[in-house]
Amino acid sequence: MYENDSENELIQRIRTLNLTAFDLWVLDEVWARTWC
Description:
Layout: H1 4-17, H2 21-35
């Protein structure tokens, strides 16, 4: 469903927000649960 453009947009948002390692870990957990 998601294409590279959406993925790149997400990466840009992450860089803009300058998330911490913990925030990225939480995001990864939520992402995994969403798709599994």
